[in-house]
User: Fold this.
Amino acid sequence: MRYFEDLEAGAVYELGTVEVDEDEVIDFATRFDPQPFHIDPVAAAESHFGGIVASGWHTCAMFMRLFVDNFTKDTASMGSPGMEELRWLAPVRPGDRLTATFEIVSTRPSASKPDRGLVASQWKMTNQDGVVVMTLRGTGIYARRPT
Assistant:
């Protein structure tokens, strides 16, 4: 188990990869972001994207899955007070292979709750061509090591 004290500014974690599946893109968007370029191959082909693209929210969800599986599940995470500066920088298409990285930007003990600390981070998703498709800055709350 990693606690707040184990998380250091400058550390970069490779979180693995995910293959973008067209059926999953359409299913996610049908449920949560039913814009034509996410759910209708004909309309998507006629759009400025030239084909189906994943919802940005789906890209975030794919990152989150990799983050939980390859980082958070082994930490004393207490959630997050919020995220900032979410950017979708390039379309994500079926067949893309996305790689996730998580960098700790800074850490600080909580001023009001001594049992926890705050970790500022930068998230990044890159496709198989090295193109950054998503970035996000956020803060996580992690329990301090029990004494």
In short: The domain at 4-143 is CATH 3.10.129.10 (Thiol Ester Dehydrase; Chain A). The first strand starts at residue 12 and ends at 19. The first helix runs from residue 22 to 32. The beta strands are 12-19, 82-88, 97-109, 116-126, 132-143.
